[in-house]
Prior knowledge:
alpha/beta, 22% strand, seven-stranded parallel beta sheet, 7 helices, 35% helix
Amino acid sequence: MGTLRKLKVTEMHRLTVDEFKESRKLPLVVVLDEVRSLHNIGAVFRTSDAFLVNSIYLCGITATPPHPEMHKTALGAEYTVDWKYFKNTEDAVNELHTMGYTVFAIEQCEGSTMLDKLVLETDKRYAVVLGNEVKGVKQEVVDMCDGCIEIPQFGTKHSLNVSVTAGIILWEFAKELAK
């Protein structure tokens, strides 16, 4: 086996903030419905930056940048990824529908589409709603969505941390939509 040398940050050729702002984004909006943890919010910003998500909608009790605790996990992504605040998640979903987005709740629902069976169309725009750490996506919001996506799980636990969920979901959307 050959030598595997870790790359230095300077060798990774990452976008500058200005290049990120000007780059073509995924046709994807992440909606955070009442997410309480600043660390989870920051992690979602960082993952959204990594996969060139168009923007994040922060709803209800979800905190907005700038915030030092959020910055600990966002590491500056709160300044690169566009965001917008809504007092009510329902208003965010209404706006997305008005703009032609297909909106999915990431939730365990009757009739959910399992993530490994999800088929996306590259000419459509999508939004995914991620819910509160304890209660998930509010039923009123689920009712407004075009469908639910569920991550298959095989162990004893019935849920994943919201930032872990975001990473899995955003990777799958990026794989499909960046083709």
